[in-house]
Amino acid sequence: MRDPSRESLRQVLLKRRDATSHEMLKIVSESIRNILRGSSLFDDITNVGVYHAIGSEVMTSGIIQDLLGSGRNVFLPAIQNNVIVFKNVHGIKDLIPGIFGIMEPRETCMTGRPNILLVPAVGATLSGIRLGYGHGYYDRYIQKNCPVTICVTMDKQVVKKIPSNPSDAPMNWIVTESQLHRV
Question: Which pTM does this prediction carry?
Fold first, then answer.
């Protein structure tokens, strides 16, 4: 059963995020891309997991292109048997519409384990608590596989407190358009 206080906060934060204009979302996404590009987070990393943005999520297509261009193995999520798995992609040709209308890797793409994972968020705290959509796919994957995690969100989605529960996977980093914060 979902926690009513988390559900209420999720709805408030989704409304706030959805109110972002497409132009502002592009600016925020490019700022986050530049912060990540200028960081050393990926220096010794070969396998990177990235989500494919939908709706008002921080756009990741530029980040994906940067990672592919740098020769790294890029993995995008797919839902199989109600579990999230990450599959290696080489470009947009490897993606098809999947569950929730999210672009995901074709069945023929090889499954793998990212060393570092960019995680979408509805909201987050600087102490590393992430609020997602409430399905728990990322939390279960992270707890089982233990990649380094980077929560990708906007400044306006960072809040002081999120009611947490034991199934929440902690984030190692929070990146917004103004900062890269180590938890």
Answer: 0.94
